[in-house]
Design goal:
alpha/beta; 6-stranded parallel β-sheet; 549 residues; globular; 19 strands; 20 helices
Length: 549
């Protein structure tokens, strides 16, 4: 029976048809199509689109091996395992169509995720890992963020051109195409060619979200490589150079997306300032407005915690929180053999494991840290988790160094397998959610939002979304950041001292000596994080400020 695309009837206020392209989506623990925060954000967006009944369709890639499975070596250090995934809940649309990559025809199959499966917008996942393709073509959709440059370029073509062509094959009349980051940029050239090679016709239809607050993190490649890989479809490279304003024969994905879009957004108010400073001097770019990232409350918040909050039942809230801590500590015990105390102050650092996020900042003054976590009268427990990029050996070594450094300490643990399930357990089981990026390198960050929903207070550098939310000592805690122009090692030293000082002098005494006041901080955070940092607000703003504007 032929596939028919019949999604739900959209709400009238969200009637314009939008298509959302993202390299990763974190929708459910069972579906391994994400690496970190970009996927968590996209997943919450798709959930809110469903709840609001927005006329939106998600386009992603079905990664045969996911990102990777984080296991352990014999000495407890991390290991990246690659296992093929299989999903019976995705519907085979029967649609197989060709796209051109490296001047060769590559067949693309589309798999469908129905809205009611996980409570998301209707979604399509593209794969080249089918018998109709040769081995090299099949590997394009094997690994999320493949380390090989040509493979990464091919993945961008699959997402952008494959997604654009799929929507045409389905007969979906799209009003707005939304690129979540620059990975799907070939869509812009597909639309450029489709609409008579008129830039203004692309700009009528395309919007763009930028996430990266530093130039080095924005992907760019040599024009010769991109042309050779068929990145521009049938559009000649010299025409792309002219229309996209390419300089020095290198095409920057973000800058090109900003020139081909009618509107773009940064992902926090701080990032809006940074993004305009980064790109504002370039000719021909579209306006960049801030739409702060957020997370889906229905998916993330613990129902019993919130029932206790709404009933103003502190006894029930504390009892449920203790239960959630015990559930997390069962995972800790199973993985590491360490038994933690549900009555002790528990600090968690957990997110994508990148160097600038400084997972080891709290360890920088190690003797002081040891004294903090070894105090039997006022114990402090610290748990880490996160996935480094599998080829980022510096980040992997840092992860393993934390394991080695904290192994003798009975109140510390490092967990592997940081995916949606473990992320939820850590947010629900923590008292303090630690966030230590180098300012101003965190565009948004969203993990503290879902921690706050679950009675965990942020202790954070004032970067990304944090300045929009945290009021020190009222709904969370701030780590003062050092002067911006200092050398990085000096900033790290100063901020490590500040972090430990806030813990020692404010948080620990509050937790143990004034538990009701600590509870007030946590409850204020729970009440204030929604609706402002709940993704229904964000999804609505995308329609009002981007799609309909």
């Amino acid at each position: 029976m032929a596939f028919k695309f019949n999604p739900y009837t959209p709400a009238p206020e969200f009637a314009p048809q939008a298509a959302y392209f993202s390299m990763e989506f974190a929708l459910d623990q069972a579906l391994k199509t994400y690496s970190g925060g970009l996927g968590f954000l996209a997943g919450s967006h798709m959930r809110s689109a469903y709840e609001l009944k927005q006329n939106l369709v998600g386009i992603g890639i079905l990664w045969s091996f996911g990102y990777y499975d984080q296991g352990r070596n014999e000495d407890q250090t991390m290991r990246a395992d690659f296992r093929q995934k299989h999903y019976t809940f995705l519907e085979d649309t029967g649609l197989v169509f060709p796209i051109i990559i490296h001047d060769v025809e590559v067949k693309v199959k589309a798999m469908y995720l129905a809205p009611d499966t996980f409570g998301t917008a209707p979604m399509f996942f593209l794969t080249t890992d089918i018998p109709e393709n040769d081995f090299i073509s099949r590997t394009i959709s094997h690994h999320l963020y493949d380390a090989d440059t040509a493979a990464r370029v091919a993945q961008s073509i699959l997402l952008g051109v494959g997604g654009g062509k799929l929507l045409d094959e389905l007969g979906v009349k799209v009003d707005t195409y939304h690129l979540n980051e620059g990975h799907g940029l070939p869509l812009a050239f597909y639309l450029y060619d489709k609409h008579g090679r008129k830039l203004e016709e692309v700009q009528k239809r395309l919007v763009f979200t930028t996430h990266t607050p530093e130039l080095a993190g924005n992907e760019e490649h040599d024009m010769k490589l991109l042309a050779k890989m068929s990145f521009f479809g049938s559009v000649p490279a010299d025409e792309v150079t002219r229309v996209a304003g390419v300089e020095n024969d290198r095409l920057n994905y973000t800058l090109t997306a900003l020139r081909f879009s009618r509107k773009a957004n940064a992902v926090s108010k701080v990032h809006g300032i940074v993004a305009n400073q980064m790109w504002g001097e370039n000719a021909g770019i579209c306006p960049i407005i801030p739409i702060t990232n957020s997370q889906n409350g229905t998916y993330w918040r613990d129902k019993q915690l919130h029932e206790a909050l709404e009933a103003n039942d502190d006894t029930a809230l504390k009892a449920r929180k203790r239960e959630l801590k015990k559930q997390l500590f069962d995972i800790v015990a199973d993985q590491t053999g360490t038994l933690l105390d549900p009555d002790a102050l528990t600090v968690v650092w957990a997110r994508r494991f990148a160097g600038y996020k400084r997972a080891d900042l709290i360890l920088r003054r190690f003797e002081r840290f040891k004294e903090l976590v070894s105090n039997s009268n006022r114990p402090v427990q610290v748990i880490w988790a996160g996935k480094p990029y599998p080829k980022d050996y510096g980040a992997i070594n840092l992860f393993n160094d934390i394991i080695r450094q904290t192994r003798p300490l009975k109140t510390c643990a490092v967990l592997t397998g940081y995916e949606l399930g473990l992320s939820a357990a850590m947010k629900k089981g923590s008292d303090i959610w630690l966030n230590t990026p180098r300012f101003p390198r965190e565009a948004s960050g969203t993990s503290g939002m879902t921690a706050a929903m679950n009675a965990s207070a942020s202790l954070s550098i004032a970067d990304g979304w944090i300045p929009e939310f945290v009021r020190h000592g009222e709904n969370g805690f701030l780590i003062p950041h050092a002067e911006l122009n200092l050398p990085e090692h000096e900033k790290d030293d100063l901020e490590a001292d500040s972090l430990l000082t806030v813990l020692e002098n404010e948080i620990v005494p509050l937790y143990y000596d004034q538990p009701e006041k600590f509870l007030d901080v946590v409850k204020t955070g729970m009440r204030e994080v929604e609706p402002e940092f709940e993704s229904n607000r964000m999804a609505t703003e995308y329609y009002d400020l981007m799609y309909k504007a």
